[in-house]
Design a protein that fits this description.
The protein is about 75% helix and about 0% strand. It has about 180 residues and is mainly alpha-helical. The protein is globular and about 50 Å long. It starts with a helix and ends in a 6-residue tail after the last helix.
């Protein structure tokens, strides 16, 4: 919860990746709050009050996962909405002539998006979701200490640049408001 709050303020893309990881963490513990308390939350150097807050947060996420039918797979509605907001901002940035650096980064990434979609990404998935899934997949490979090919590393570097720019624009839009032509 504490990490999520900080990420949400500072980097919406990292927040979303973190929340996807939390969803998977909950699944790994069988959606069991007692197990999450005992085997996960207890490992952190939190005060008892912080541990209770964290457990409440996890309990709410578990309840939402149960209610929304994503115990086994998929994402919580709150995460889908965040992804949709990023996707809408992505389209606004591309539609405006005021953001040439963003458009340039996008056109560098577009071949990777096309390749990922040809490899089996869901067809209804938007471009931002394809990018986020690629970043999440590589993050999982790194956590598992699996090899990442140089071509994948290059693609992820370009995708990270685009997603980082999108995240920066999202923050700027929330704080100051972006002006679109």
């Amino acid at each position: 919860m504490f990490i999520a709050q900080e990420l949400r303020k500072n980097n919406i893309a990292e927040y979303l990746l973190y929340m996807w990881q939390i969803e998977d963490t909950i699944r790994a513990f069988g959606c069991s709050l007692p197990r999450i308390r005992r085997e996960y939350i207890e490992r952190f150097d939190y005060t008892e009050e912080q541990k209770e807050d964290e457990a409440d947060w996890f309990g709410n996420l578990i309840r939402m996962m149960n209610e929304e039918g994503c115990r086994e797979q998929g994402h919580l509605q709150i995460n889908k909405v965040t992804l949709q907001l990023l996707s809408e901002l992505h389209q606004q940035l591309l539609s405006s002539s005021q953001f040439p650096f963003y458009s340039s980064a996008y056109y560098k990434v577009l071949p990777f998006i096309v390749e990922l979609r040809n490899r089996g990404a869901r067809k209804e998935e938007n471009e931002v979701e394809t990018c986020m899934n690629a970043l999440y997949g590589v993050m999982m490979l790194r956590l598992q200490k699996k090899e990442i090919t140089p071509s994948t590393q290059h693609a992820v570097k370009e995708i990270s640049t685009l997603v980082g720019m999108l995240s920066d624009y999202y923050k700027k839009d929330k704080e100051e408001g972006l002006k679109f032509e």
